[in-house]
Amino acid sequence: MTTSALLMIPEAIDRFGARVRGVPADRWDDPTPCTEWTVRDLVNHLVGEHLWAPHILAGEPLEQVGNRYDGDVVGADPVAAWERAAARSRALWPAADPAGPVQLSFGTVPLRDYADQMLVDLTVHQWDLARGSGQDETLDPAAVAYGLAYARANVERFIGMGVTAPPVPTTSTDPTVQLISLCGREV
């Protein structure tokens, strides 16, 4: 299961990037399902994650990276900022060792755990970005299935870490709706 997350991340980066490029010029300040973030804030979050990724994948300690990616990392051109960060991150995932240790804010874990989290983050935030900017909300079925299995197994931990809001109840059998609802979003 986790090796496939590593293989799925480059395409997930590409799908998120397509949504970034598709944001209409007048929608960057619109709200997203992530209640604290506008469209621009959401893209800033993902740019920051993908600026960090090469350091994490290289095994650098967090202290060495410091706070250089805190705050506004998209500047005046969120699309260009995304393209630069995504290109650097995307290039490294296919060759990453799934068993290799990486240091995250909550401890050292096997890279496969980081890959799982990144795939879910890219997938759910792709939906958030699409919803917030008025784009097609369709998600890749394989990424949704993978993300749903991972989220089901880890949702309580995510809530405890403050990574996601509590699940929104749903009776839908649609895997995308289940994943989005499980990650605390109203569909």
Task: Tell me what you see in this structure.
The protein is mostly helical. The protein has a single domain, classed as Four Helix Bundle (Hemerythrin (Met), subunit A). Strands 1-2 form a two-stranded antiparallel ribbon. A hairpin with a 2-residue loop joins strand 1 and strand 2. The chain is globular. The model has no long low-confidence stretch (mean pLDDT 92).
List the helices and strands and how they pair.
Blueprint: H1 2-21, H2 39-57, H3 62-65, H4 78-92, E1 101-104, E2 107-110, H5 111-133, H6 141-161, H7 175-182
Pfam families: MDMPI_N (PF11716)
GO molecular function, one term: metal ion binding
Q: CATH topology, what is it called?
A: Four Helix Bundle (Hemerythrin (Met), subunit A)
Largest sheet: 2 strands, antiparallel
Domains (count): 1
Strand content: under 5%
Second-tier CATH architecture: Up-down Bundle
Roughly how many Å is the radius of gyration? 16 Å
**Element-by-element helix/strand order:** HHHHEEHHH
* Amino- and carboxy-terminal Cα gap: 27 Å
Overall geometric form: globular
Averaged pLDDT: 92
Helix segment count? 7
CATH class: Mainly Alpha
Strand order of the largest sheet: 1-2
Helix content: 55-70%
Stretches where pLDDT is under 50 for at least 5 consecutive residues are none
What's the total count of β strands? 2
Helix and strand content put the structural class at: mainly alpha
